[in-house]
Amino acid sequence: MEISRLVEKIQPSGIRAFFDLVLGMKEVISLGVGEPDFVTPWQIREAGIYSLEQGFTSYTSNKGLYKLRLGIHRYLKNKFGLEYCPEEEILVTVGVSEGLDLLLRAIINPGDKILIPVPSYVSYGPVTELAGGIPVYIDTSKNGFKITPELLKRHIDKKVKGIVLNYPTNPTGVSYRGKELQELNKVLLKHKILCISDEVYGDLTYDFSHTAFPTLPGAKKQTVYFNGFSKSFAMTGWRVGYACGPKEIIAAMTKIHQYTIMCVPITSQMAAAEALVSGKRSVEQMKREYDRRRRFMAAELNSLGLKCSLPQGAFYLFPSIKSAGLSSMDFSRKLLEEEKVAVVPGTAFGSCCEGYIRISYASSLENLKEALVRIKRFLEKRTPRV
Amino acid sequence: MDEILEILEKNGRASIEDIAKMIRKNPDEVKKAIKKYEKDGSILKYKAVINKDLIKDSESEVRALIEVNIVPQKDLGFDKIAERIYSFPEVTSCYLISGTYDLLVVVEGRNLHTVSNFVAEKLSCMEHVRGTATHFLLKKYKEDGVILKHKPDENKRIAISY
Q1: Does residue A386 surpass a pLDDT of 70?
Q2: Could you give the residue ranges of the DSSP H alpha helices within chain A?
Q3: Could you tell me the residue range of the domain that residue A357 belongs to?
Q4: Are the beta carbons of A314 and A145 closer than 8 angstroms?
Q5: What is the rounded distance in angstroms from the CA atom of residue A47 to the CA atom of residue A266?
Q6: Is the ipTM beyond the 0.90 threshold?
Q7: Are strands A223-228 and B91-96 parallel, antiparallel or unpaired?
Q8: What integer pLDDT is reported at residue A384 of this predicted model?
Q9: pLDDT beneath 70: ranges in chain B
Q10: Is residue A266 assigned to a domain?
Q11: Taking phi first (over 0 means left), then psi (-120 to 50 degrees means alpha), and beta for anything else, what does residue A3 get?
Q12: At which of A218, A253, A278 does a domain end?
């Protein structure tokens, strides 16, 4: 069977083989996990179970349960003073991933360009291509992994339709203050470029308060805001996210969503609605725990010579492994084979990330400490003895 | 609450160096703060949480929760009589509570007999104690925020993901 040329063109992830190697190994300490190590807080799980007991097993409206959309509306209003109409401006999706796919398909005409600052989450580029667009990668590795207005301007032309911002960023943990975002916003407004803002790690921002992009002056009409329950509420497997934006864009996304997905599973939506009602305290507790591990790991990695700055959000560190004299992939593979510690090579997140690895601290402190002992041993073997 | 106390409350064995890294402070400062807490009684002691169900050689213990009704004393209220009760080594916890009785006393003993004896011979006949109701504890599921499980949680996450 001939496979679609569009799909054929998509590069399979270069580190698939490495992932398979990790998955086939036993007793690995994994710092390669992109999800919380906490289980979903009990009151949220309980709400899911209860909804099943009550017999909520049907479809919901395409846009999602009204009570969930209303919950999202209230959450954004209370947290950021953001007003999205639950009837027309909010769409509940199967994680942020589905929402991004919907949006890109909804806005891209053949040849349209989407700017993607790299390193970035792995799906942005391929999903842009599948939608018929051209991903334009912006290398931020020389700027502390941050996109700046100058860097942005340099990549703008008539065909640029949107930019995917993701902050706090997977894989670097880098985030932006309101002032920095405002400078970017000015450029985007001037050139009428849509801001596709993936803020799924927003609740996990440590050193300053998170600024939602649509709260910036004039930004709301030109932004689609994405958030979800996976990271902050530890609900990855439930697959619930949402998109908020101008009603004509949400309507276009809903059109694709209703034909492809129909609706997010009702149990997950019920649980997510409960998360917004009673989950705040659990989020705070998890955040405090991540924060301690963040500071601990940053200090330890730097003392091992794996230089990294203190990231401001998410649960990732992105240290340089250049001192070890190995490529990202070799470092990761050897560390796995010799010491059974799994990390993700930086190159998974963009070709400019050679010399870096992603370390997730969504793991217990005991695990992190044991991993550090092993990494230390691994590095010592490689230090040339004088 | 100070973050140092928050960390120690969860893990009494957290080292000064680790705490210092976690809260980005100098180890000396952390050490000094802990000393201060120990001295002023904010930190009373450090201990391990042991799941005694798993200790094969431990003598089996019996626990009882005892509701105690007392007659408060003039000027001293409940405190004086509470002190006389909680000073017994058999008493592991003692709380003054609102509701139909006054003190909730947790008593531990080697067997049913020792606990009953304590109630009958020490507690019930104490001056100012008006009455008691003893509830023997059958099974512990969770204590002080710790779920007493036989097996640690297995890892349910896939080992690597974006």
Answers
A1: no
A2: 5-9, 16-23, 42-53, 66-80, 95-107, 124-130, 149-154, 178-190, 247-260, 266-278, 280-303, 328-339, 365-382
A3: 5-40+281-377
A4: no
A5: 11
A6: no
A7: unpaired
A8: 63
A9: 58-60
A10: yes
A11: beta
A12: A278
pLDDT digits (tens, 9 = 90+) for A39-62: 999 999 999 999 999 999 999 999
List of residues 6+ apart from B95 with CB closer than 8 A: B103, B104, B105
Do A189 and A100 belong to one domain? Answer: yes
Residues A274 and A287 in one domain: no
A33: helix, strand or coil:
coil
For A302-360, the DSSP string reads HHTT-------BTTEE--B-GGGTS-HHHHHHHHHHHH-EE-EEGGGG-GGGTTBEEEE
Architecture of domain B54-139: 2-Layer Sandwich (3.30)
Beta strands in B52-159 (DSSP E): 62-70, 91-96, 103-109, 129-136, 142-143, 146-147
Domain boundary residue, one of A278, A308, A334: A278
**Beta carbons within 8 Å of A266's beta carbon, 6+ residues apart:** A51, A56, A57, A58, A59, A60, A65
Please state the domain count of chain A. Answer: 2
Task: Let me know whether A128 and A24 are in one domain.
Answer: no
Which two three-digit tokens encode residue A12? 């399979």
Residues 114-153 of chain A with CB under 8 A from chain B are 121-123
Mind telling me how many Å the CA of B53 is from chain A's nearest CA? 24
A121 and A270, same domain (yes or no): yes
Inter-chain residue contact A293 with B158, CB threshold 8 Å: no
Cβ–Cβ < 8 Å for A6, A126: no
Q: What is the CA radius of gyration of chain A?
A: 21
A230 touches chain B (CB under 8 A): no
Q: What digits encode the pLDDT tens for the residues A308-356?
A: 999 999 999 999 999 999 999 999 999 999 999 999 999 999 999 999 9
Contact across the interface for A288 and B6, Cβ inside 8 Å: yes
Which positions 38-97 of B are in contact with A (Cβ < 8 Å)? none
Q: What is the pLDDT of residue A166?
A: 98
Q: What is the DSSP letter of B73?
A: B
Q: What is the largest CA-CA distance in chain A?
A: 71
| B16 Rama sector, left if φ>0, alpha if ψ -120 to 50, beta otherwise | alpha
Ranges of each domain in chain B: 3-39, 54-139
